[in-house]
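Inputs:
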Amino acid sequence: MSDATNVPFGPQHPVLPEPIQLRISLEDENVLQALPALGYVHRGIEKAGELNDFQQNVFLVERVCGICSSIHALAYCLAVESAMGLEVPKRADYLRVVWMELHRIHSHLLYLGLLAEAFGFESMFMEFWRIRERVMDLLEMTAGNRVIISVCTIGGVRRDIDAEQARTIREELPKVREEVQRLVDALLGDYTVKRRTAGKGVISGQAALDLGAVGPTLRGSGVAQDMRMAGYAAYSELQFQPVTFPDGDTYSRTAVRAYEVFQSMDLVLAALENLPEGELAAKFKGRPDGAALARVEAPRGELIYMVVGNGTKNLERMRVRVPTYANIPALLSVLPGCEFADVPVVTLSIDPCISCTER
Amino acid sequence: MSELAAVQGIERIEDAPLEGLLEAVRAYRDRRARFITATCLDRGERFEILYLFDEGLKTVAVRTFLPKGQRLPSITGVYLCGFLVENELQDLFGIEVDGLDIDYRGKFLVTNTFETPPLLKQTTCELRPTKEEPS
Amino acid sequence: MARMLRSVLRNALSKPATRPFPEAPRAEFEKARGLITFDCTDCRFCGACALKCPTGAIRVVREERRIYFEPFKCIVCGACLEACRFGSVRMGPERRKPVYEKPVEVYAKPETEAEPKPPDPGA
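Outputs:
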């Protein structure tokens, strides 16, 4: 290690807008070792979750992540509902699917744009984000906010999608799909993009499982594991197949996300098609007494909430395990052997969200 | 000194004594279960620590009890990816972990701004600092 | 070449994808979450809104029959709106404009004061 050059990568870096520092030892241009230094944005949300009222926590956990915010609220609500033995109305289940999948679309479009920017494809970045804006408009039209949509509540949802709005979504999504298709063809078919991503940061399926990787990182290595297959909310009644790519490199992880955008659009349309009539939220009395764990599929992977109630309005413990947290060991294992110029692209390929990770 | 009776969403909880923890975890490793995370609860005199594993979309757990003041054996020899969560236990609960592969020595997420580790029950903090009353 | 020319022509002739922002701001959606205001005509000062507020932006003082609202603590979640049984909390689609100071808004019943008191500078 005496010849190694140590390069701090982040927390301020032009292509990594995330507060993480990777301490990278280099030999010539090759990475020998990478170690993360976290702790820039720890906010103590798990402690705050113990001090807050369990109903107010819904708004707190939404602010864990800035991109997959409402999926955090869904996971928390699912955990509390199962601790309280609460039955959610069917319509609420379907509406949750609609919003969560719209969320996934905009999160994946954000990722695709950022990845394009990371290897210097700036016009692609702007195109992706221009389309993302139309999905955000759909979210704002139905839920009132662009990202932190606050639709989930314990027992159901807080807002409804009426026939008029459902029609708008049905008309808008095929148009968005067409545009995304054009861009994805350009992104995944391009020679330069392939040279920058294919074969970079390779992790095998077994290694990814051993390191606890989740979500697109795992599916990009050919392991078909998607928490939506467990069938929370209305996913058990909707048909879908997890998207997998076999190579385990940056290209595969990107392709998984790109095709998941289309899958999510299909799910939104199917959920709107089968939207049952009924109540929006179940009434409940009492306080959570008992423990429950909920696992959902956030855009970045499997998200886990565990709540332990003690019969009072405050929770005994609220545990959050976010997807990036599980993907960091996988990232650290693929970085050695990469060239230094590929480090930003490979790091982005797990779609890191550090403010989630530190909570 | 209570303990979790059952957790909705976890298929089964297997109790392991502290000295048998590594063997119990290794059994899951041999079955190719995916390590999810560990969760710690402050139970007064002792900690209740759950190691969660994924077996084909089902969640299973290994539970151990750690009396306060004792050291916890590290599972990083079995599951390397456990280093993040064990560093977190050191930071937020003040548990000392033995044989940690990558050890941040309690400065992983927080620096020593707290007198006691933040997630212990004895640590209290005011959620909303009260402002000057508007007159 | 022909494909490129087509793109060039399309981009040259089509409208820009963006809006000239400060001159032509986007119209707000009907259901957008925006400004929270209080209408104290029917308010009983029960404090349900303050109890539900996750950030503690609302303070109801029953004796004074006043509501103190800190708009810059508010996260516009709408929990107060759902908690109120008398329809005293209103939410409009407009967003709050940036300001230099963070005032505390004071609302009271219209009988006692003609208008909501302007933010107290000494607060």
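Remarks. The domain at 5-358 of chain A is CATH 1.10.645.10 (Cytochrome-c3 Hydrogenase; chain B). The mean pLDDT of chain A is 86.
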